[in-house]
Amino acid sequence: MRTTEQIILLAILILPALPFAPLAKFSTYMYKSEGLQAARRNIVVLSHNVSQDVADGFFDVNCLLTGRVDVLTRCINSALWVSNGIRKDTSVFLMLFPHNITIEVRGSEILDLNPDERTTALCLQRALLANMNMNPVTSTSTHADVDIDGRDENGSHDDDDDDDENKNLHRRQVEMGRLQKTNRGRPETVNPHKPGSLSKSEKTKFRITRKAREAMVRRITRSLGSGECARPPKGFLIHREDTLLARLKSLEGIGNGNGPILMLNELGDPLGGVLSDEAYAKSYTQTNENSGKSNETGFDSTTAKTTTTMILGDQIGYAACDEEVLARSNAVRQVSLGPLSLLTSQCITIMHHYLDMEA
User: In its keyword annotation, does this UniProt entry include Repeat (predicted)?
Assistant: First the structure.
């Protein structure tokens, strides 16, 4: 009896280690992760109406709803994170409009990132602040409603006093415009003898807002150290003066694998049908001939069969100019995940699932 028990125990210990054991094959199948490295993926998120504070990195990581930084962090987490790991084959491009700033997050280079929104927001903040300190940018906004030069109606300057007065008037108008965005119908001029003046309550509100922002800037500066010593996190890159047209041209380049560019739209073709279309798939099965050479995105081309680029809008959707630029490109194809409008982060997860199944 004792001999029988020993034989059974020995069989239980040895059987899973044998190459023909069903358990070993099942385990290998279940934990197979080759699909994550089967193809290169670029995810482009078009974020509109981004405030200047967010573009400069001055936002509170404890209140990500302000400025909708939470949307950016969720997109990064959905694009890069898998269970106990990061997709090394994926890069995320967060395009901040109207500032034409693109935050590139490379999964192949990223380090010290946790799958929580606050840590991701801190990395975004460090990257933006470090880049702003190294490359200071002057005010070049093309969406200004008021002339910032202090010019008169004829476009000429009078004297220095008029310039200072016009600049102060413009500053007061900007301050008043920010405070009265939610108060529709209120007169812009409180005191007719002092154009651009603010009421007492508005002055108090503006003063409180300004003090809160100054305190936040001091807190950020203390936490990150001096501006000269601050460095962007590993894998985070900032591209300035980056337009959608320029980004499309770079993604269509040969160095990125000649893969499809898919624009997510409720009215597009079903994504599952597009990926399973043999004629469509064959046109993008070319491999990069530059074997052993890394392309400009920092990904080794020898491990990538093809590149798939996904373009999505933010919580606002696509702007009219975005749709016009994308419609003119022959490389862009509109695809859909269904008739319902989903969250951007949800769309990224679902599209990853489809690509993993096709890999």
Answer: no
